[in-house]
Amino acid sequence: FQKSHAIPLQHREVSLRHFITFGLIRGFLERIDRRNEGLSAEEIRELYELRKELIPNRKRELTLQLRQDGDESMTEEELMSKVNRDPQVLAWVDRMNELKARDKKKPEGSVSTSFMYRAAPPTW
Predict the structure, then answer these.
(1) CA dist., res. 99 & res. 44, Å (int)
(2) CB contact at 8 A, 32 and 23
(3) Predicted local distance difference test score (pLDDT) of residue 3
(4) The pTM is what?
(5) What does the pLDDT look like over 6-64, one tens digit per residue?
(6) What is the distance in angstroms between the CA of the first residue and the CA of the last residue of the chain?
(7) With 80 as the cut, is the pLDDT of residue 122 above it?
(8) Which residue, among 111, 124, 116, 123, has the nearest Cα to 48 in the 3D structure?
(9) What HEC string does 71-115 produce?
(10) Residue 48's closest CA among 107, 111, 100, 106?
(11) Closest Cα partner for 112 from 22, 27, 55?
């Protein structure tokens, strides 16, 4: 790299050491000997679907079903407690928490995926 990019580096008066240090600090470069523990694109998509689609839709369905079938005297807290104890909801929440924990373990300098949770699903 140094030999093939010597002229541009000299023209800009940048040493290779400074170029690499800047790139690592800013996240433009990544060490190749370090294993990336962040999420893959598929896992990011799965996390988005769990947070924004699967879990909320299932909870909505269960809430409507319990209101139709259930006791009128059931409070909102009791209703949500039943919904949150649903085996499918529990499994999805466990998976979502697992993915979120792995996302937090990603190397320093890598881009956070949290911005994708508020935006449209990633398209790759």
Answers:
(1) 8
(2) no
(3) 83
(4) 0.56
(5) 888 888 888 888 888 888 888 877 776 545 567 888 998 999 999 999 999 999 999 99
(6) 30
(7) no
(8) 116
(9) CCCCCHHHHHHHHHCCHHHHHHHHHHHHHHHHHHCCCCCCCCCCH
(10) 100
(11) 27
